[in-house]
Design goal:
With 331 residues, the protein is of the alpha/beta class. It is 40% helix and 18% strand. α1 links the parallel β1 and β2. α1 packs parallel to α2 and α9 packs across α11. The structure holds nicotinamide-adenine-dinucleotide and uridine-5'-diphosphate (UDP). Nicotinamide-adenine-dinucleotide binds next to α1, α5 and β5.
Length: 331
């Protein structure tokens, strides 16, 4: 079975490529390297002893994309490519809508033209917006009060996929709604390596631990949560990657969405304490005002994925910290 992976040199895509290669799938990757490095391919080869075919192209370049579909027959597409920085998307909405929506539409048109009907799409818990309850199930209405242009692109793409699956029942589409992916492959060879000052909690903690940033600001300690700090559902990226493999077997006519999360919320303070335990020393941190747009807490109800994908998480936040420390030591 040959799988086209868009965004396959990125953080999550590269972990899925490793799982696919380890399970014997043939893989071709498309990525424009706007947020990843070509050296990831060598790391994937070190882990799997296999090197996937790589095309450095932009999904916005439709003629070149068409050519790739003409040259190879794909059984399945996994679509990770997209811009994902929440704050940047608010500053540059047109770039985000163009890249994420036009890129996806180009991909879908090529798939339809070449009769490739199996698709697994990287969606996000952000499609739920602010539903007013913290535990998200797939049957909640999506799209209300989504605070960023990034989040809206995920919602809009899901709507496009639903319409497409109705118009052309040949399509078998699964959207996987990720909660907060963290950690990396236990080899320490691939992982998340953002440039500059990170926005997300995990990479920020790592930069403080390395001494590249002086201290972590914990955004808000007066929320109505058990310790006053925000709670999220942190999922190890290897568990997340395995969820994609499980989804392949569940593809059927139409559109279906699944939450990929642990179902257990963890607070920012608990994350800091876990890191300190694993790293064996205190992490400099202070309490700062709330960050605009943050919800106090939300987590996945993963029972649909547990049941229908026959998938569940096995790794912990401790595993994620250990693996991330190992990734940093390899840099
Ligand atoms: P990432 O930035 O590491 O990977 C995305 C890859 O897509 C990058 O390698 C980038 O170079 C590539 N890309 C972007 N636009 C492209 C284009 N027009 N043409 C070709 N390649 C392009 O991000 P990630 O964390 O691996 O996320 C993968 C997917 O999962 C994204 O769609 C993201 O929105 C989604 N997602 C991520 C998270 C998260 O917290 N990491 C949470 C929910 C959903
Ligand atoms: N957070 C924090 N300090 C940081 C980065 C994040 O306190 O430097 C908190 C943030 O307020 C949120 C949680 O950590 O409650 C996870 O934030 P992240 O940006 O990683 O993911 P989000 O859930 O916002 O997508």
């Amino acid at each position: 079975m040959k799988v086209l992976v868009t965004g396959g040199t990125g953080y999550i895509g590269s972990h899925v490529v490793v799982e696919l290669l380890n399970q014997g799938y043939e893989v071709e990757i498309i990525d424009n390297l706007v947020n990843s490095k070509i050296t990831v391919l060598d790391q994937i080869e070190k882990i799997t002893n296999k090197k996937p075919i790589f095309h450095q192209i932009d999904l916005l370049d439709k003629p070149v994309l068409e050519q790739i579909f003409t040259n190879s027959h794909f059984d399945l597409v996994m679509h990770f490519a997209g811009l994902k920085a929440v704050a940047e998307s608010v500053e540059q909405p047109l770039r985000y809508y163009n890249n994420n929506l036009t890129g996806t539409i180009n991909l879908l048109e090529c798939m339809e033209n070449h009769h490739v009907y199996n698709l697994i799409f990287s969606s996000s818990a952000t499609v739920y917006g602010n539903p007013g309850i913290p535990e998200y199930t797939e049957n909640l209405e999506t799209g209300h009060n989504i605070s960023s242009s990034y989040g809206k692109t995920k919602y809009m793409i899901e709507e496009i996929l639903k319409d497409l699956a109705i118009a052309n029942p040949n399509f078998n589409i699964i959207a996987l709604r990720y909660f907060n992916p963290i950690g990396n492959h236990p080899s320490g060879l691939i992982g998340e390596d953002p440039n500059g000052i990170p926005n997300n909690l995990m990479p920020y903690i790592m930069k403080v631990a390395k001494g590249e940033l002086p201290e972590l600001s914990i955004y808000g300690n007066d929320y109505s949560t058990p310790d006053g700090t925000c709670r999220r559902d942190y999922i190890h990226v290897v568990d997340l990657a395995k969820g994609h493999l499980s989804a392949i077997d569940a593809l059927e006519s139409g559109f279906k969405a699944y939450n990929l999360g642990t179902g257990s919320p963890v607070s920012v303070l608990e994350m800091v304490q876990t890191f300190e335990k694993i790293n064996g020393k205190p992490l400099p941190h202070k309490f700062s005002p709330r960050r605009a747009g943050d919800l106090p807490e939300f987590w996945a109800n993963p029972s649909l994925a547990n049941r229908e994908l026959n998938w569940q998480t096995t790794l912990t936040t401790e595993d994620a910290f250990r693996d991330t420390i190992s990734f940093i030591e390899h840099q």
